[in-house]
Amino acid sequence: MGRERHVSTIANDVNRYAPVASIVRGLLPRVVCDYNRPEEGVEDVAYADEGVGIYYRAYHERISSLLQRACAQYGKARLIDLRGYTGPTAGLVLGSRNSSTCRDGYDRRALEFLENYEDRGVYAHIARVGERFSGGYTVARHASEKVSALQIEIDAWYMEDDAQERGRVLSAILSQLIEEVP
Fold it and tell me: Positive or negative CA dihedral for 71, 56, 83, 142?
Protein backbone atom coordinates (compact mmCIF):
# COMPACT_ATOMS: atom_id res chain seq x y z
CA MET A 1 0.00 0.00 0.00
CA GLY A 2 2.95 2.37 0.35
CA ARG A 3 1.82 5.95 0.90
CA GLU A 4 -1.74 4.89 1.73
CA ARG A 5 -0.63 2.27 4.23
CA HIS A 6 -2.01 3.81 7.41
CA VAL A 7 -4.65 6.20 6.07
CA SER A 8 -7.35 3.68 6.93
CA THR A 9 -6.14 3.59 10.56
CA ILE A 10 -6.49 7.36 10.79
CA ALA A 11 -9.91 7.23 9.08
CA ASN A 12 -11.11 4.53 11.49
CA ASP A 13 -9.93 6.59 14.46
CA VAL A 14 -11.68 9.67 13.06
CA ASN A 15 -14.87 7.62 12.78
CA ARG A 16 -14.48 6.46 16.37
CA TYR A 17 -14.16 10.05 17.63
CA ALA A 18 -16.75 11.53 15.22
CA PRO A 19 -19.38 8.83 14.69
CA VAL A 20 -21.36 11.09 12.32
CA ALA A 21 -18.72 10.33 9.70
CA SER A 22 -19.17 7.45 7.27
CA ILE A 23 -16.16 5.70 5.76
CA VAL A 24 -15.86 4.34 2.25
CA ARG A 25 -12.56 2.61 1.68
CA GLY A 26 -11.16 1.34 -1.57
CA LEU A 27 -9.58 -1.99 -0.69
CA LEU A 28 -7.55 -2.54 -3.84
CA PRO A 29 -3.97 -1.23 -3.90
CA ARG A 30 -3.45 1.93 -5.93
CA VAL A 31 -1.35 0.07 -8.52
CA VAL A 32 -4.41 -2.09 -9.29
CA CYS A 33 -7.13 0.56 -8.98
CA ASP A 34 -6.68 4.28 -8.42
CA TYR A 35 -10.08 5.40 -7.18
CA ASN A 36 -9.00 9.03 -7.55
CA ARG A 37 -8.75 8.85 -11.36
CA PRO A 38 -11.46 8.87 -14.02
CA GLU A 39 -12.63 5.49 -15.25
CA GLU A 40 -12.07 6.37 -18.91
CA GLY A 41 -11.29 9.16 -21.31
CA VAL A 42 -7.70 10.00 -20.38
CA GLU A 43 -4.35 8.27 -20.72
CA ASP A 44 -3.86 7.72 -16.98
CA VAL A 45 -7.05 5.79 -16.18
CA ALA A 46 -8.13 4.24 -12.91
CA TYR A 47 -7.43 0.62 -13.78
CA ALA A 48 -6.15 -1.58 -16.60
CA ASP A 49 -7.95 -4.84 -15.84
CA GLU A 50 -11.62 -4.59 -16.89
CA GLY A 51 -12.59 -6.93 -14.03
CA VAL A 52 -11.58 -4.22 -11.54
CA GLY A 53 -14.26 -1.84 -12.84
CA ILE A 54 -16.96 -3.36 -10.63
CA TYR A 55 -15.01 -2.40 -7.50
CA TYR A 56 -14.24 1.09 -8.80
CA ARG A 57 -17.90 1.75 -9.64
CA ALA A 58 -19.12 0.31 -6.31
CA TYR A 59 -16.75 2.64 -4.44
CA HIS A 60 -18.05 5.78 -6.16
CA GLU A 61 -21.69 4.60 -6.04
CA ARG A 62 -21.38 4.12 -2.27
CA ILE A 63 -19.99 7.62 -1.83
CA SER A 64 -22.84 9.03 -3.95
CA SER A 65 -25.42 7.10 -1.94
CA LEU A 66 -24.10 8.34 1.42
CA LEU A 67 -23.93 11.93 0.19
CA GLN A 68 -27.48 11.76 -1.16
CA ARG A 69 -28.71 10.40 2.17
CA ALA A 70 -26.90 13.15 4.10
CA CYS A 71 -28.31 15.84 1.79
CA ALA A 72 -31.82 14.44 2.23
CA GLN A 73 -31.42 14.43 6.02
CA TYR A 74 -29.42 17.64 6.58
CA GLY A 75 -29.83 19.65 3.38
CA LYS A 76 -26.09 19.49 2.69
CA ALA A 77 -23.12 17.16 3.07
CA ARG A 78 -19.34 17.11 3.33
CA LEU A 79 -16.95 14.72 1.63
CA ILE A 80 -13.48 14.57 3.12
CA ASP A 81 -11.26 12.40 0.94
CA LEU A 82 -8.26 11.27 3.01
CA ARG A 83 -5.19 10.21 1.03
CA GLY A 84 -1.57 9.55 1.87
CA TYR A 85 1.63 10.93 0.37
CA THR A 86 5.32 11.15 1.01
CA GLY A 87 6.60 14.68 0.70
CA PRO A 88 9.61 16.83 1.47
CA THR A 89 7.92 18.27 4.57
CA ALA A 90 5.44 16.87 7.04
CA GLY A 91 1.97 18.25 6.75
CA LEU A 92 -1.50 18.17 5.34
CA VAL A 93 -2.35 19.41 1.87
CA LEU A 94 -5.93 20.52 1.38
CA GLY A 95 -7.21 20.20 -2.18
CA SER A 96 -10.38 21.87 -3.40
CA ARG A 97 -9.49 22.83 -6.99
CA ASN A 98 -9.22 26.52 -6.09
CA SER A 99 -12.32 26.24 -3.89
CA SER A 100 -14.47 24.97 -6.78
CA THR A 101 -15.30 21.81 -4.81
CA CYS A 102 -15.98 23.83 -1.64
CA ARG A 103 -18.21 26.60 -2.93
CA ASP A 104 -19.31 27.47 0.59
CA GLY A 105 -15.73 28.22 1.71
CA TYR A 106 -15.35 25.03 3.73
CA ASP A 107 -11.73 24.63 2.58
CA ARG A 108 -10.78 28.03 4.02
CA ARG A 109 -12.59 27.37 7.30
CA ALA A 110 -10.90 23.95 7.54
CA LEU A 111 -7.50 25.56 7.00
CA GLU A 112 -8.17 28.19 9.69
CA PHE A 113 -9.21 25.45 12.08
CA LEU A 114 -6.14 23.29 11.36
CA GLU A 115 -3.76 26.26 11.71
CA ASN A 116 -4.75 26.40 15.39
CA TYR A 117 -3.00 23.08 15.92
CA GLU A 118 0.51 23.86 14.66
CA ASP A 119 1.76 23.58 18.23
CA ARG A 120 0.58 19.93 18.17
CA GLY A 121 2.44 19.11 14.96
CA VAL A 122 -0.31 19.79 12.42
CA TYR A 123 0.86 21.87 9.47
CA ALA A 124 -1.60 22.53 6.66
CA HIS A 125 -1.90 24.55 3.48
CA ILE A 126 -4.27 24.72 0.54
CA ALA A 127 -2.82 23.66 -2.79
CA ARG A 128 -3.54 25.88 -5.78
CA VAL A 129 -4.65 24.41 -9.08
CA GLY A 130 -1.62 23.08 -10.88
CA GLU A 131 0.14 22.25 -7.63
CA ARG A 132 0.43 18.69 -6.47
CA PHE A 133 -2.68 17.49 -4.61
CA SER A 134 -4.85 20.47 -5.56
CA GLY A 135 -7.90 18.22 -5.59
CA GLY A 136 -8.38 15.04 -7.54
CA TYR A 137 -11.08 13.24 -9.42
CA THR A 138 -13.04 12.05 -6.36
CA VAL A 139 -13.71 15.53 -4.97
CA ALA A 140 -14.46 16.90 -8.45
CA ARG A 141 -16.88 14.06 -9.20
CA HIS A 142 -18.86 14.29 -5.98
CA ALA A 143 -18.90 18.05 -5.27
CA SER A 144 -22.14 19.92 -5.95
CA GLU A 145 -24.14 22.88 -4.72
CA LYS A 146 -25.08 20.85 -1.63
CA VAL A 147 -21.82 18.89 -1.23
CA SER A 148 -18.50 20.44 -0.23
CA ALA A 149 -15.73 18.01 -1.15
CA LEU A 150 -12.24 18.43 0.29
CA GLN A 151 -9.22 16.23 -0.39
CA ILE A 152 -6.80 16.02 2.53
CA GLU A 153 -3.42 14.55 1.69
CA ILE A 154 -1.70 13.24 4.82
CA ASP A 155 2.08 13.07 4.82
CA ALA A 156 3.61 9.71 5.76
CA TRP A 157 5.17 11.44 8.80
CA TYR A 158 1.80 10.97 10.55
CA MET A 159 1.52 7.34 9.50
CA GLU A 160 4.96 5.77 9.86
CA ASP A 161 5.20 2.70 12.07
CA ASP A 162 6.77 4.76 14.88
CA ALA A 163 4.23 7.59 14.52
CA GLN A 164 1.21 6.06 16.22
CA GLU A 165 0.84 8.92 18.69
CA ARG A 166 1.08 11.54 15.91
CA GLY A 167 -1.57 9.60 14.01
CA ARG A 168 -3.88 9.50 17.04
CA VAL A 169 -3.47 13.23 17.64
CA LEU A 170 -4.21 13.94 13.98
CA SER A 171 -7.27 11.67 14.08
CA ALA A 172 -8.66 13.52 17.09
CA ILE A 173 -8.08 16.89 15.40
CA LEU A 174 -9.70 15.75 12.14
CA SER A 175 -12.67 14.48 14.18
CA GLN A 176 -13.03 17.93 15.71
CA LEU A 177 -12.84 19.43 12.24
CA ILE A 178 -15.77 17.26 11.14
CA GLU A 179 -17.85 18.04 14.21
CA GLU A 180 -17.02 21.72 14.76
CA VAL A 181 -16.40 23.41 11.41
CA PRO A 182 -19.65 24.30 9.67
Answer: negative
pLDDT in tens, 13-68: 998 888 788 999 998 988 899 999 998 876 678 998 989 999 999 999 999 999 99
Burial class (CB in 10 A: 0-12, 13-18, 19+), 20: exposed
pLDDT tens, position by position, 129-142: 667 778 889 999 99
Q: Residue 64: CB partners within 8 Å, gap ≥ 6?
A: 142
Radius of gyration of the chain (CA): 16
- 76, 102 in Cβ contact below 8 A? no
Largest CA distance in the chain: 47
Paired strand residues for 147: 77
Is 14 in a helix, a strand, or coil? helix
